[in-house]
């Protein structure tokens, strides 16, 4: 008996294939749920950007609303700065050649 079996190719069910008349767009974030710069730092999205930066992103206070984060104390969680905010403070500069050097911010 052969170890390899013949593989049957199954036809795709036409109803399982979705076609869209237009490309689905993400919904706009709800402005009332957005934290402001006067919110406590643990509720802000990051220390340097208080609001969300993507329409598909949940604001930080509402991102932990499910049972998985039931006993998570936000004040003890890491809260790193947003890379967007850091680049905004010190924008990207063009350099001559193929190498860039970082002095560590000194």
TrEMBL record:
Region (Disordered): 20-66
Compositionally biased tracts (Polar residues): 48-58
Compositionally biased spans, kind Low complexity: 30-47
Record's GO cellular component terms: mitochondrion
A biological-process GO annotation: mitochondrial electron transport, NADH to ubiquinone
Full protein name: NADH dehydrogenase (Ubiquinone) Fe-S protein 6
Organism: Kwoniella pini CBS 10737
Organism lineage string: Eukaryota, Fungi, Dikarya, Basidiomycota, Agaricomycotina
């Amino acid at each position: 008996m052969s170890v390899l079996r013949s593989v049957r190719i199954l036809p795709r069910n036409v109803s399982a294939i979705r076609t869209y008349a237009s490309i689905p767009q993400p919904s706009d974030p709800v402005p009332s749920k957005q934290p402001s710069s006067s919110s406590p730092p643990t509720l802000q999205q990051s220390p340097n950007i208080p609001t969300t930066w993507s329409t598909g992103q949940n604001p930080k206070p509402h991102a932990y609303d499910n049972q998985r984060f039931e006993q998570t104390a936000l004040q003890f969680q890491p809260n790193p700065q947003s890379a967007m905010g850091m680049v905004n403070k010190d924008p990207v500069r063009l350099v001559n050649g193929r190498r860039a050097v970082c002095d560590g911010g000194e």
